[in-house]
Amino acid sequence: MDIIEYLKTNAELIDSALNECLPPEDEYPDIIHKAMRYSVFNGGKRIRPILSLAACETVGGKKEDALMAACAIELIHAYSLVHDDLPAIDNDDFRRGRPSCHKKYGEAMAILAGDALLTHAFYLISKGKNPEQNNRILEDVSYAISTFGMIGGQVADILNENKQPDAPVLQYIHTHKTGALICASVKIGCILGRGTEKELDTLTKYGELIGLAFQIKDDILEIEGEKGKMRNSDEEKSKLTYLSVYGLKESKYQASQLIHKAIHILDEFWGSNTPLYQIAKFIGNREY
Amino acid sequence: MDIIEYLKTNAELIDSALNECLPPEDEYPDIIHKAMRYSVFNGGKRIRPILSLAACETVGGKKEDALMAACAIELIHAYSLVHDDLPAIDNDDFRRGRPSCHKKYGEAMAILAGDALLTHAFYLISKGKNPEQNNRILEDVSYAISTFGMIGGQVADILNENKQPDAPVLQYIHTHKTGALICASVKIGCILGRGTEKELDTLTKYGELIGLAFQIKDDILEIEGEKGKMRNSDEEKSKLTYLSVYGLKESKYQASQLIHKAIHILDEFWGSNTPLYQIAKFIGNREY
């Protein structure tokens, strides 16, 4: 399969669905709807919602059944970026080469746009076809982004700025701040595709592995890559990163080991010519 | 019935349930859990969750069945206050006579504590006994606090600071910013008590009336009452209030008319010696 084509086609599908499910820009009070759309349509790769669709198909489901929940995941990702960029948190003026939400719409609107994206994500979850499945998705997603998941990781990240490198803390930050939502993306796809408990276990393990690998790659690309963010913004703020704890070479090795494990798990079940296998490889090789 | 005793007993029930359902203060990362609890346990009257319990009982349900969702409503209320108080929004240093969350824990933690309270509210909704009911609650609550509800009201409130008094805009702000969540509190109680569609219609109307009356009373108490907030903070910021549009006398008259309508609706169905009837009267008479 051609993974680049697969990612492109499905990103377009997600974009189209996001466009459908977000409030129109001219709906009163229009500034908040503009700020929400500005934060969502930012050239993102849609890797998280694509993981949901791919997981759904992997276990024999139709990807349309996972589309709303996949959009919810992307809105949650967008909310987390809008709030992370705020002056009181990471104080990032740019995101993917454009002014961040608070630079464009002001701080009050950015706080509320983040709140609104999170709220709308949960509204979308309620709109799935099957209420029992929706409830399970609600439980998994809300836990994954709670203080025991994504928010917990973000808090630990802030608390450990300008601190000595510490491997267990770093592991906590990365698995929670980034890994939890990526893993949840995979899990909800499996649930909505009506995967078995065994399949869910396998894909959860896969999700954990690629979630951590994704963030290590992010740390590497902060140094080596050409990202839209200002260069080395994490390093400027003395954030705890894989590079600060392990150095570049060991970080690359660890990322490749995680990807290797993830594709090994998939290979046993579904072979290598499958989207999730190829997405894992893509995460390992990504350069942006 | 003794409404003061009723409110006290049920506020204690809610407080005890909130204490059970919030993450322990010493759980890592503890600062966020401390900030969440600080923002929830602030001497609030718990009027919203009590409305949920009372509505549930009014239609013949057991209030225990509405307890988790009622706690979710209170967490949402707490999240909205934490974010409203932020420097970029209302910039309130005090809340009920204590430092507001960002003054106590810093701005980054206040943003994240608000996010975490909202997220935890949705997690609690998933924990109700009946997944189908949970899904309906999810849909109603997430809509009520969306940009078409509470957030929309907050946005309009900000956009209309220092603007000329305007009755339709004021009506929009009050029914959305405060009214939507109060109305949702009543509705979810009715749903969880397995009320009929007719009962739901009636209680929705009741909820809309007391929701607006509650906010008008709030505007009046900003001037007349002894609140923990600094005096006239809305007036200092030139917020649009009922008093700025209608003056004190007319505001009081309108509030009493709304309460009158609300209790009239209830009287027809359930008589006057009932919690919801007495709560409406209490809102009309409250002085703090």
Keyword list:
mainly alpha, 72% helix, homodimer, 288 residues, two-stranded antiparallel ribbon
Total of domains of chain A: 1
Relative helix content of chain A: over 70%
Largest interface: A-B, 50 and 50 residues
Strand order, largest beta sheet of chain A: 1-2
**CATH architectural group of chain A:** Orthogonal Bundle
CATH class category name of chain A: Mainly Alpha
**Low-confidence sequence ranges of chain A:** none
Shape of chain A: globular
First and last CA, distance of chain A: 21 Å
Please provide a written account of the structure.
The structure is a homodimer of 288-residue chains. By secondary structure, the first copy, chain A, is mainly α. Chain A has one domain: Orthogonal Bundle (Farnesyl Diphosphate Synthase), CATH 1.10.600. Chain A is 72% helix and 1% strand. The first copy, chain A, contains 13 helices and 2 strands, in the order H-H-H-H-E-E-H-H-H-H-H-H-H-H-H. The first copy, chain A, has helices at 3-21, 30-40, 47-58, 67-85, 101-105, 107-126, 131-144, 150-159, 167-192, 197-224, 233-236, 242-270, 275-285; strands at residues 94-95, 98-99. In chain A, helix 3 (47-58) packs across helix 9, helix 7 (131-144) runs antiparallel to helix 9 and helix 12 packs antiparallel against helix 13. The longest helix of chain A has 29 residues, at 242-270. The radius of gyration of chain A is 18 Å and the shape is globular. Chains A and B meet through helix 2, helix 6, helix 7 and helix 8 of A and helix 2, helix 6, helix 7 and helix 8 of B.
